[in-house]
Specification:
Oligomer: single chain
Strand order of the largest sheet: 10-9-8-6-3-2-1-11-12-13
Low-confidence stretches: 1-31, 126-132
Shape: elongated
Number of strands: 21
Length: 700
């Protein structure tokens, strides 16, 4: 939950129109109107403009604050006017990308970008509220054991305090203490406190230095700190995040921009200024934008960092530089088909109902969250018995696993896996809630998962600097096979963590059900709303893993959260096109928004495992109707009734089933005492559309 002491967004955006244009980090220059590639860059930026007013990623339908911030910043650097500024300002005011209360900490970087867009446009928002940020956020130890919040968000909070004049009437002592604790002896900063003896991070150093300056502290970068920054430059000319990193050693545009920004503040330059300029220009592609690194695709944020770094270096996007060829989209095998997978789908409750839902919703691979081997085996047995083409496998979130990365903190939610149903992985972690060094976690758990034909999934982490290190490492080693995008509820992690878009096309993106609760039936809204599609010649586990490794996967969502329109996450362009061209073959919806039945009926026999209501003798008929789950899909607290029983008959004779109501479940049940073949007919009605459905079952 967001800190109740956090400033209201409307309060700070109201005040920004009177601020100088230099109220950003770092200040913008006025060069750029004569860049050789200016028109090409502007055309690239323009392709990201969305019909709803803002800018977004090319592969996504909706705009977002972060690419909008980068686009407006690029226009200013290029001295180019922006069209339709009123629509752009309305978007910035009204489309904050994260619903209130869903993020685990205030995402002040996004708030800062939102405010700065409006500032650049000379716009303001009227508000009668005036809340103030009084002290740094305290993170939930469930996510980070030391309660360390993300440093960049705290730095952006300080920037916002300065923008709205909060420091004039509120003490800054807590903020000063927070940042001074994180300043290393050489003047660098990182997310953890300096007392742990860890090294700094070049971007966190930029954030930390800027925050103390905003707090009117006299801070200077010592000589060994300047040397530290310069030593982050690699032989290519670009910069990495620290001079000798154990993990994620690669150059990146944001690291290079941060280094140039820090050095420019002290009147210094990189050791090899010319190679730095050359490396930046080498990231300019024929598409008209800059990429973050040689392996990435061009994007708006990298373009913004590149242009500003070139400005500070007194250089330009040289027209004589040989442009890097845009990535070629290879043709995919004509024998490929589109298959559907659910990651971390329900793994307990009724296996029978899971099989029915898999058939109804056209799911070929059901990876069950934290399911027992017995549950997976029973679900697979029933699927084979009823000739339902679905494979059940594992997808576990190994609760209680904490991994530590020096300088950043100790985090949970870094241990989510997919593996075959019969994988022999054993219980994990060896001791719950005890931190494991990242390298130990990598060399034991991740290694074991990969050796047993599984893959690790990156679920969630709001620390951008840490995420960059580990995902860049994963591009080299395969530590993580996929990144979660769509998530249960209203969550879309690409909205929360827009920096994840940098790995689009480099690491596959999947939808993560992250199922909570007991029965698949009560989770069916989520199962129906989004899933992962993969390309293969068959739906086998081996083909699924091959699709992940080759980025032949795509997360797709179509439910109330997208206004029942398709939204994509991830995938290579040729994969998106292949899947889009075959929508009629894989779509799970019909003329209405849903193909899911109004009720589900199961014939229960003695000793049926995992089935609630199974009799000791004879047969029982269990019917679950449809209920809305309110705003809490992680708990089956049943709210609005959506369907009702019209009749239940056995061989034409009407019967009245008993209703059983539990805390997180409810169903109708009737026990059949007479032996012999009989037919059950159940009629249910949709309470919203008043259509009826008839369910049949044979009692043998």
């Amino acid at each position: 939950m967001i800190n109740s002491r956090a400033i209201s967004r409307r309060a700070f955006t109201r005040a920004i129109s009177s601020l100088p244009l230099a109220a950003c980090l770092p200040s913008f220059g006025t060069t750029g109107s004569a860049l050789p590639n200016r028109d090409k860059i502007l055309a690239f930026i323009g392709r990201h403009r969305k019909s709803s007013g803002g800018y977004g990623w090319l592969s996504r339908t909706k705009p977002h604050i972060t690419p909008t911030f980068a686009a407006v910043g690029c226009h200013r650097l290029l001295q180019s006017p922006i069209t339709e500024t009123e629509a752009l300002a309305d978007f910035a005011r009204l489309h904050y990308p994260v619903p209130e209360g869903l993020s685990q900490q205030p995402l002040w970087r996004i708030d800062y970008e939102q405010a700065q867009i409006l500032n650049w446009l000379g716009k303001a928002i009227d508000s009668d509220k005036r809340a103030m940020l009084q002290e740094p956020f305290v993170y939930n130890t469930y996510f980070e054991q030391n309660a360390y919040p993300t440093l960049q968000h705290q730095a952006m909070a300080v920037r916002l305090r300065k923008m709205i004049g909060a420091d004039k009437s509120h003490s800054s002592t807590a903020w000063e203490h927070y940042f001074k604790l994180r300043r290393r002896p050489n003047g660098t900063f990182n997310n953890s406190v300096a007392a742990d003896g860890s090294d700094g991070h070049i971007v966190n150093t930029l954030w930390g230095m800027g925050a103390l300056q905003d707090l009117q502290q006299q801070v200077e970068m010592p000589a060994d700190g300047i040397d530290w920054i310069r030593n982050c430059q690699l032989a290519t000319g670009g910069f990495t995040w620290s001079p000798s990193p154990e993990l994620g050693r690669c150059e990146n545009m944001i690291y290079t921009w941060a280094a140039v920004s820090l050095l420019s503040q002290v009147g210094a330059k990189p050791v090899d200024r010319d190679s730095c300029v050359r490396w930046i220009n080498e990231q300019f592609t024929t598409e008209g934008g800059f990429r973050s690194s040689p392996e990435a695709n061009p994007n708006l944020t990298a373009t913004y960092y590149a242009l500003d770094a070139l400005r500070m270096l007194g250089a330009s996007a040289a027209g004589t530089t040989r442009l890097q060829a845009a990535r070629k989209s290879p043709s995919l095998p004509s024998t490929f088909k589109v298959y559907s997978a659910q990651i971390e789908a329900p793994g307990n409750g009724s296996p029978s109902e899971a099989v029915v839902l898999a058939k109804t919703l056209n799911i070929q691979l059901w990876t069950a969250k934290n399911a027992s081997r017995e549950w997976i085996a029973e679900a697979q047995r029933l699927a084979s018995l009823h000739r339902v083409s679905v494979q059940f496998a594992r997808a576990d979130e190994e609760y209680g696993t904490y991994t530590s990365v020096r300088g950043f903190g100790t985090y949970s939610h870094l241990d989510d896996l997919v593996a075959p149903g019969d994988a022999q992985l054993g219980p994990y972690p060896p001791q719950k809630d005890v931190a494991l060094p990242w390298t130990e976690f990598r060399d034991t758990r991740i290694k074991a998962i990969r050796e047993d034909k599984g893959r690790m999934v990156w679920q969630f982490n709001e620390n951008e600097e840490l995420t960059r290190v580990l995902l860049d490492e994963a591009c080299r080693t395969g530590d993580y096979g996929a990144i979660s995008s769509f998530h249960f509820g209203l969550d879309d992690f690409l909205d929360f963590e827009p920096f994840l878009m940098e790995w689009e096309g480099r690491i596959g993106m999947i939808g993560l059900q992250d199922s909570h609760g007991g029965e698949s039936w009560w989770w069916a809204d989520q199962l129906e709303g989004f899933r992962t599609l993969y390309l293969a010649e068959d739906p086998s586990w081996e083909s699924f893993v091959k699709a992940i490794d080759n980025k032949w996967v795509l997360s797709v969502r179509r439910d109330a959260s997208t206004n029942h329109r398709i939204e994509w996450s991830g995938a290579l362009p040729e994969v998106r096109q292949f899947i889009a061209d075959r929508e009629q073959k894989w779509s799970w919806w019909g003329e209405s928004h849903s193909n899911r039945p109004l009720a589900i009926m199961t014939v229960l026999r003695p000793e049926m495992p995992f089935e609630v209501g199974a009799p000791k003798a004879g047969l029982s008929i269990r019917v679950r109707l449809r209920f809305g789950l309110g705003d809490s899909p992680n708990k089956a607290v049943l709210h609005e009734k959506q369907s009702e029983l019209v009749s239940m008959r056995i061989d034409g004779q009407e019967i009245s089933p008993e209703e059983v109501v539990l805390a997180h479940d409810r169903y109708l049940i009737h026990h059949v005492r007479e032996a012999g073949p009989r037919t059950v007919t159940v009629v249910v009605r949709d309470l919203r559309g008043h259509r009826t459905e008839t369910l049949f079952a044979d009692l043998k």
